[in-house]
Amino acid sequence: MKRTLPLPSLERLCGIYGLLDSLPETLGNRVSSRELGRAIGQTAETVRKDIAHMKADIVSAGGYDPAELKGAIASYLGLQEPRRACIAGLGRLGQAILRYPGFQDAGIEICAGFDSDTNKLELLASPVPLLPSYRITEYVQKEKISLGIIAVPPDQAQITADRLTAGGVRGIVNFTVPVSVPETVNMRHVSVLDELRILAALADGADQNIQEK
Amino acid sequence: MKRTLPLPSLERLCGIYGLLDSLPETLGNRVSSRELGRAIGQTAETVRKDIAHMKADIVSAGGYDPAELKGAIASYLGLQEPRRACIAGLGRLGQAILRYPGFQDAGIEICAGFDSDTNKLELLASPVPLLPSYRITEYVQKEKISLGIIAVPPDQAQITADRLTAGGVRGIVNFTVPVSVPETVNMRHVSVLDELRILAALADGADQNIQEK
User: Fold this and answer.
1) Residue A126 neighbours by CB distance under 10 Å
2) Record's HAMAP family (chains A, B) (predicted)?
3) Percentages helix, strand, coil for chain B, rounded to the nearest 5?
4) Which residues contact B152 (CB under 8 A, 6 or more apart)?
5) ipTM of the complex, rounded to two decimals
6) pLDDT tens digits along B162-205
7) What angle do CA B72, B74, B79 make, to 5 degrees?
């Protein structure tokens, strides 16, 4: 079948899904495309187009039913299927992610944590196995882990990506410096510094150059 | 003057800038649009268009000079100007950001940290002032802080955004649930869960629906 959903629409649909998932109490019985758009920083029209893209059989008159919309997105994007993930790098950031309570509900099981410092592995308490980094490939392969999170220092970023890729992950969330991965692996680079720079540019640095949203 | 740079181009230029800034040693004397594209997950053509958008006086034959390109992006986006930022929420994530050594070099000064737990404020060692959350508005205003980072638990997210906004920040990086801010404030929502869902959808859940990059 032909692939038809552009990446920005996928990103927005995941944002809407996250909103429906994390804040159902604020949305009431019906939620309009305008409310959804305001919450994720998009126009009502963009939200309507993204939702229409799914060609799902959902009622939009008088707003969407949050549970129905959430179900439609999950079904369209294949989000019901549970996924296995692991974290490489157990510094403050890696530990924060390891202990984040929201994954299980979201159908994502954090199965393992890895760090190159074996002393640290002994000291950390964790409900999931913590293993030395050289075991990433073997363990990811054995446990059929499909998603990896990289939270290691910059000098370990590429070897960590290589180990995850060799183990067969299909996607990586990368919190450190950019790394190279084969085209078969999808990568999402998350950088606080990049986000702050985008905000700085939007705030006043380049008012004359940047398009209004 | 008219604003002409679309947000996705701004995001990509900040990604390229971050790459040039964090990995200069891997790029050599000249870097091609293809190499830049591969590193940030974009096509060479997209990178060329984004760079051309700046209408900067830079040589592109045989690849770009990394330092020259970095300077051109900084100048176009107003990134040379130093910025003052603060962090609200000093759990593991907030502490990880507070201690991240890369901000200073990037022209971003983390000026303060806030948390509602005053015991925690006393226990944490920090080179910058740590203050109780109810002081956010006053302190942000007094210190002319223009950027805020939200790393608080979900139930404190909205009040934290309100306090930062009342203090006059122009942009917020939000690591928690979506919050509402006035149109004058730019918001960047960062969610590991959203990123994992995007990867899950790209990996195999919706192969038939999603456009190839």
Assistant:
1) 14
2) Rex
3) 50, 15, 35
4) B88, B89, B91, B94, B116, B133, B160, B176
5) 0.91
6) 999 999 999 999 999 888 899 899 999 999 999 999 999 998 65
7) 165
Rounded to 5, what percent of chain A is helix, strand, coil?
50, 15, 35
Residue found under tokens 């999931």: A128
Q: Is A159 on the interface with B (CB under 8 A)?
A: no
Does the pLDDT of residue B53 top 70, yes or no?
yes
Helix (H) or strand (E) holding A94: helix A92-98
Question: CB contact, 8 Å: B193 with chain A?
Answer: yes
Q: Are A72 and A58 within 8 A, CB to CB?
A: yes
Ramachandran angles phi, psi of A112, nearest 5°: -165, 155
Rounded distance, CA B115 to CA A76, Å? 40
Same fold, A7-77 and A83-192: no
In chain A, positions 2-41, which contact chain B (CB-CB < 8 Å)? 2-8, 10-11, 14-15, 17-19, 22-23, 38-41
The DSSP call for residue A159 is: H
Contact B3, A207 (CB under 8 A): yes
Which CATH number is A7-77's, of 3.40.50.1100, 1.10.10.10, 3.30.390.30, 1.20.1740.10?
1.10.10.10
Q: Give, as one character, the DSSP assignment of residue A203.
A: I
DSSP string, B83-113: EEEEEE--SHHHHHHHT-TTTGGGTEEEEEE
Q: Return the minimum-mean-pLDDT range out of A179-183, A204-208, B162-166.
A: A204-208
* Residue B67 touches partner A, C-beta closer than 8 Å: no
Kindly list the domain boundaries of chain A, sorted by start residue. 7-77, 83-192
In the CATH hierarchy, which fold is given to the domain comprising A83-192? Answer: Rossmann fold (3.40.50)
Q: Which residue of B has its CA nearest to A155?
A: B23
Question: What percent of chain A lies above the pLDDT cut of 70?
Answer: 94
For residue range A142-169, list pLDDT tens digits in order.
999 999 999 999 899 999 999 999 999 9
